[in-house]
User: Fold this.
Amino acid sequence: MKKILNNPNEFVVEMLDGLLKAHPDMLTFAGDDTHCIVRAGAPIEGKVALATGGGSGHLPVFLGYVGQGLLDGCAVGDVFASPNADQMLEVTRRIHGGRGVLYIYGNYGGDTMNFDMAAEMAAMEDIEVRTVLVKDDVASAPPAEAERRRGVAGMVFAFKVAGARADLGGSLDQVEAAARKALANIRTMGVALSPCTVPAAGRPTFTIGEDEMEIGMGIHGEPGMKREKLQSADQIAERMAAALLADMPLGAGDRAAVMVNSLGATPREELYILYRRVYDILRGQGVSIHRAYIGEYATSMEMAGASLTFFKLDDELASLLDYPAQSPFFVQV
Assistant:
């Protein structure tokens, strides 16, 4: 294992310490636990608060989207491990501005169990909490079993839309509805080329040949749909786009935002090679591309590979997507 670290068991603690020291104008923490990241100035009275949470190792997801026009707080777990219920409750208390709290996070068993418990404890303190689960990964279950799907990079669009609606003064009902509407129109698929290494484990999460790729692998190294010989960039783009369009058709007159996301080690140069083919596919079908997001948005440590997300837009969703936002990892003006 080759990593820039001190003690592998202090990896997350030291990362959070550095992050908080780098961005004191944007972020702080709740209680005495730096795993409870909140927006500087929280709570914002009279605004619906948004919280997420999950394991480390995915920056910018999850905590990288705490900021203006986005999320108000994030409970941070160890690498690929859920934060506990007490941490999510501490975040919830700190960000609650009197109009309720919306949880938005990926559909993973440990997160669901702990955050449901946090919501129940918050309710006993008269804090109303609603929950929206992100289930955008088309490779993790067929359409008939979409409720089992994992949450991956598409959650960034849900954070963006819900955060905008909350900043614009939306009620808890309205913010929840905006998040659900967004997620009904978001689909993602990824391709992994190499594994990653969890610092405390010191070994790769899986093995894969130099000439192989895993179609549909999850962001924690969960098995994908199929392992195949490595294909060209155009072929990979076509495979991912075809899977998304089969699940959520887009055609003439439709508008979409597109995200080509690095899983960690894949450079932007390669992402743009993927995007050029995705652009041609969508434009060839008469789809207007409203915005393109190319870069690192939801990673898996140093895993090589990429994911593709389509977000089908109407006027309301496009307006919320365009709303200004700023966090340490995301700026939109």
Remarks:
- The two ends are 40 Å apart (CA to CA).
